Amino acid sequence: MTYEIEINRQSHDVEPRPGQCLRTYLRERGWFGVKKGCDAGDCGACTVHVDGEPVHSCLYPAVRAAGRSVTTVEGLASPEGELHPVQRKFLDAQGFQCGFCTAGFLMTTAALEAERGTAHDDGKLDDLPRAFKGNLCRCTGYRAIEDAVRGTRHTERPCAGRAVGSSLGAPAGPQVVTGTARYTFDIDVPGLLHMKLLRSPHPHARITAVDVSEALRVPGVEAVFTHEDAPDVLYSSARHERPAEDPDDTRVLDDVVRHVGQRVAAVVAVSEQAAEEGCRRIEVTYERLPHVTDPEAAMAPGAPVLHSGKGPESRIARVGNNVAGEVHGEIGDVEAGFAEADVVYEETFRTQRVQHASLETHGCVAYFEDKEDGSGERLTVRSSTQTPFLTRRALCALFGLPEDEVRVVAGRVGGGFGGKQEMLTEDIVTLAALRLRRPVKLEYTRAEQFYGATTRHPFTITLKAGARADGTLTAVRMRVVSNTGAYGNHGPAVMFHSVGESFAVYRAPHKKVDAYSVYTNCVPAGAFRGYGLGQVTFAVESAMDELARRLGLDPLVFRERNIIGAGEPMLSPIGEEEDLHIASYGLDQCLSVVRRAIAEDAGDDRVPEGWRVGQGTALAMIATGPPGGHYADATVSLLADGTYDIAVGTAEFGNGTTTVHKQITAGALNTTADRLAVRQSDTDVVRHDTGAFGSAGTVVAGKAVLLAAGSLAERLTTFAARYTGVPRHLCVLGAEEFDCAGRVVPLKELHEAALAAGAAGETTADGHWGGTPRSVAFNAQWFKVAVDPDTGEMRILRSVHAADAGKVMNPMQCRGQVEGGVAQALGATLFETVRVDEGGAVTTAAFRRYRLPQYADVPRTEVHFMETRDAIGPLGAKSMSESPFNPVAPAFANALRDATGHRFTELPLTRDRVWLALNEGAVDGSC
Q1: C-alpha distances out from residue 851 to 69, 256, 288, 483, Å
Q2: 18-56 burial, b if ≥16 CB within 10 A, otherwise e?
Q3: What is the arithmetic mean of pLDDT over 68-78?
Q4: Considering the entire predicted model, what is its pTM?
Q5: Nearest-CA neighbor of 770 among 679, 842, 699, 719?
Q6: Mean pLDDT in the chain?
Q7: How far apart are CA 480 and CA 463, in angstroms?
Q8: What's the rounded mean pLDDT across residues 899-927?
Q9: How far apart are CA 619 and CA 890, in angstroms?
Q10: Beta carbons within 8 Å of 273's beta carbon, 6+ residues apart
Q11: Which helix (H) or strand (E) covers residue 311, if one does?
Q12: 694 pLDDT higher than 90
């Protein structure tokens, strides 16, 4: 056949492969703005125009595009480079965070804009829930996208030295809206091989034989790797500064499989199709072993032991009882505390598995580059990771390599939420690359994200709390069981963190906890936004609400009587963390915001007759960084052209740290952000960075940047004084020059002078921060909801969130973090759940079976920032990436309790669960 297609005004005549979709055809031609988020038509990240019509290119056969004109996001701008009006709107509103979904929203919006006033205009732009029913965003909460479509501008251009506190736009914004931002796989590597994984169909089995002979006969298959090829080394896929925080219970490829979906073999071939066929040809003989999916049953005597034979060097708390980790502690005497109480409330709460659902799936590319000194090659791993430096450390330990032989780099990362604080692909890809000495790529499918990556830990919390008639707490006791799945990555740490701040935010003389992280034959859990606090906060805040109601008190008043105050010790049964301080206090202001929202709220004519209305509140406290050390190095340098370079290790995945680092530096150097370049998330850039997790991007890496920029300003001022002979205090650093008592010295001239004087060291400075001491951030959420008792349908009438973020470095960006956290938490509250059947298999391994929040599901949340300034964080700032998630579920559950009179104790609060509770008096516990 003769094939011809026009792509972005360029002609192409290469025929597509049989069955090839338009998405892969376009990417193979270098149009990387077309993204893969699902390959099922569910997310819209691959949207392009075919003869002006928006289509999901992952479903559109490339052969159908013959003779047609295709436009990708790269082709929206004019040939002269002028942005399309929709691109300009998204840039001005910053209608994105990680940006992976942005091309899809842009292309959908542009097509609908083109229909305005034509016969095809069906009013979708006036009905955005309908317009965007085929597009998903995991980061923004959709408000920023709506503002972009409506033409609302949020970005500002602050003058020199005034960047901090302004809504500076993301530095990568122009690249995001034009499709030129480079994510993990947006590169062309010559000679690239593709990897596919054969995964276990059994929840627990021993591999007794593997026959790969037929797989090796598949044309294009280069190699097959099994457990016999893997290092006999145990490690954890979790990434922490201190590896001892996690059990070493994992191998690259193991001869025992412990969950359905565990990797059994890896096939490397010249194409994905050949690698997939190779996987189908592998014959594996399994010896089935007993399995257990319930954590209580897993701890019981006689249960199958998942990690039998692993010794104390693996740091598993109790191998024989499947306990990966546990913590026990008591303050005072809880039984005496309950005896003092006038009201005692006891209940068991359950939270479910949730998938991170970042639109860019896990994956990496490993290839070899020549060393700069010409002494040979070194391995480069380009990965979708939150932890480049820790991943390099782990790869070097696993394969016995010196660190200067391995470089790990992250491009722009398409969402993380904790899920990429793991090493899930880099190990197996490195194994193949080292053996074959050729570049190798592994990119997870959306289904693999569900059964081959990690989830949020399911929790069961039995809580008992007592209070006197005046509303003061007397005792709180919790028994917490966390299901860590087949492997203990993050298991003990999440369990430990879950019972820290959740306990400490309330005063009570008697507190006790018994907590367990338990192995089961289920998909492994891992780090997730909130790191365990969201699960336990659901129980604690529900219990506080219920105690108040049983005492006849306003739940807000009850909280105000029992929360810790400024300067008070934060006491938890697991022990006081000596480096954790209340370095600023805004919790009282948060509750005042809620009180004002309640007071000003009037009746709502949007409520249909017969529906019940209620309101509810919850609060949360979180440390502004993880314990045990979180390190960051940064370097800020004056360049020869008079601009500056910032080198920092932390990754950018929509968390906004790049913007904040530029703002901090611009303030310290009294310049403008456009005179700053950032190099980041590359192990070649700085000495070390623990990673972009635990909300550390601002309070740890930002602190290192502040120290480096401040030091450079001092050095430059000293040298300027020496160069001009003017007293130092008369030398004033400006945006582009020094003013030394009237003598203007351009920064370019100063750089030249420093080099000429042999003082090049005066043009660069380093900063380091060790992540300690730490402060705490506070959040409060309030909902007003309506419920239809006849159907279980729920509507959010109003959503208000109060955030104590200290000095807000970038209001627009920080508000986006809060809105995105609330939206993600609403998904976990109302419908998201990773279902696992009795055989341990995930049954929701696609977006259409796993219900993500869509545009129509998410209300506009009113975000309020408290007036505080932290004594520890850089320039008074605190973290605000994880914490907005934590109070959402209990606030909604408390509003539901207020509306219906029923206390819901299990998430998600699905419509059918609500209907059953209201109409049968009991909730079906199946999930």
Answers
A1: 34, 33, 33, 22
A2: eeebbbbbbbebebbbbbbbbbebbbbbbbbbbeeebbb
A3: 97
A4: 0.97
A5: 699
A6: 96
A7: 8
A8: 82
A9: 9
A10: none
A11: none
A12: no
